[in-house]
Design brief:
Helix content: 40-55%
Shape: elongated
Number of strands: 6
Number of helices: 5
CATH architecture of the largest domain: 2-Layer Sandwich
Strand content: 15-25%
Radius of gyration: 28 Å
């Protein structure tokens, strides 16, 4: 039961991506966003794309997947890729900060109350004791210095994570979150739906609220695709 549901979600997800690929071949000035579940997929279109063109793209995507063009099920801007890249970048930065903090703690430093050489006489001067971290002296400043010192390494680590994250995310997507082999999956219906808060949010994110790219929302219901 659970396995059948997962199979349907993955195949719906693949059909969603294939539909966006087909739309991209015929329309250059538009954006799209979707999400899939066991019933089918929601498709949000931003631009002058008619309902008939959306229906034609779904049918074409379904036909091409059936014909063996399974690569259409994978999309480089899928949420799987974005989440994978974000997680790698976060882990890379956190690892660098943690290492720098550990190294700073292991580095010997003057103890509170120790005297340091006087700049005037070369000996030990009065009142030249190292302040205690508990007194607001070196503790807070050293933490800020550690953070500052780790920024170049953290930046380099994040850049590396961004480079690695995209191909890794595409591989994970292809293996776990989509399936280009749609088997007996069929499109049952395509209907416009009311614009949701999610649709409005992605309109702002993808088009910066450009009124020349009006939003349209559709739900594509499917049947089959469980085996």
């Amino acid at each position: 039961m659970i396995e059948n549901t997962i199979n349907r979600i993955r195949r719906n997800h693949g059909l969603e991506h294939a539909t966006i690929h087909v739309l991209s071949e015929g329309h250059k000035r538009f954006s799209a966003q979707g999400n899939s579940d066991h019933r089918g997929f929601h498709l949000n279109i931003y631009g002058d794309v008619t309902e008939e063109e959306v229906a034609a793209a779904v049918a074409e995507a379904h036909r091409r997947l059936r014909a063996g063009e399974r690569h259409l099920a994978v999309h480089p801007n899928c949420g799987t890729v974005l989440v994978t890249t974000a997680m790698l970048a976060t882990l890379a930065a956190q690892a660098v900060f943690t290492f720098e903090q550990w190294r700073a703690e292991k580095t010997p430093s003057p103890r509170a109350g120790d005297q340091v050489p006087s700049s005037s006489g070369g000996g030990l001067g009065r009142g030249s004791a190292v302040p205690s971290p508990s007194g607001g002296g070196l503790g807070r400043g050293s933490s800020a210095l550690t953070l500052l010192n780790s920024l170049p390494s953290a930046t380099l680590a994040v850049v590396g994570a961004l480079i690695v994250g995209r191909p890794l995310g595409i591989t994970l997507q292809e293996r776990y979150t989509v399936d280009g082999d749609i088997r007996d999956l069929e499109v049952a219906s395509i209907r416009p739906v009311r614009l949701s808060p999610v649709t409005r949010l992605f309109q702002l994110l993808l088009t910066a609220g450009n009124r020349a790219l009006p939003p349209h929302a559709y739900f594509v219901r499917t049947v089959g695709g469980e085996e």
